[in-house]
Amino acid sequence: MPSLTRAPRPARKPADDRRAEFEQRVLRAVEDLLADGTPYTEIAVQKIAATAEVARSTFYRYFPDKSRLLIRMAELATSDLFAAAERWWNAEHTDREVGVRNAMSAMIAGFRRHRYLLLALSELAAYDRDVGAYWRGRVAGFVDLVRHRLEVDRAAGRVAPELDPAATALVLAAMVERSISTAFAVRTGISDAELARALGRSIWLVVYGDAPAGPA
């Protein structure tokens, strides 16, 4: 006699897990399409959805337009980059130049993994209002973190009293952003390790090069 007991249904993934999985599929699809050399503005939503193997209706439920899509993909792609830099700026810096060089290496490695998307972000941020506002806000938040650390170090006598925290924070953030973007946008012949060493040394000397004592 056949059993009347129903087989238990497989548990559904939590909504957050489903969204994260969906976003990663879309991120891979966008990066694959960009890697073929197609400009982001020329990639149709239908093509992205087909490559990610999702329905267009599902796609639009998460991303109402391509600007919002790029912003969310950039959030995913840059989370590790900013985390590496923020960890160094929140650290004690007792490992001196080696520490900032390692942070730059992590940032460069993260940029390399997502270079096609991040180069598209850099391009669109110049003329897409929403994308530009997002990226300026993200960088401004990082600049503020650096400024605060420099203010603390100056008050503690760990950097030169002449160092201007606000201006220096802006200069350092812009230097790192543009240097890494340029290194991946054109053929420079500079290796990732060489770029990390140059950025690490530059940051260290700007912050602590003329410091009376340096970090403890």
Automatic annotation (TrEMBL):
Domain HTH tetR-type: 20-81
One of the record's GO molecular function terms: DNA-binding transcription factor activity
Taxonomy, superkingdom: Bacteria
Keyword entries, A-Z: DNA-binding
Family annotation (InterPro entries): EthR_C, Homeodomain-like_sf, HTH-type_TetR-like_transc_reg, HTH_TetR, Tet_transcr_reg_TetR-rel_C_sf
Residues within the DNA-binding region(s): 44-63
PROSITE patterns assigned to the protein according to its UniProt record, in alphabetical order: HTH_TETR_2 (PS50977)
One Pfam family this sequence matches: EthR_C
PANTHER family linked to this entry: HTH-TYPE TRANSCRIPTIONAL REGULATOR ETHR, HTH-TYPE TRANSCRIPTIONAL REGULATOR RUTR
Protein name according to UniProt: TetR/AcrR family transcriptional regulator
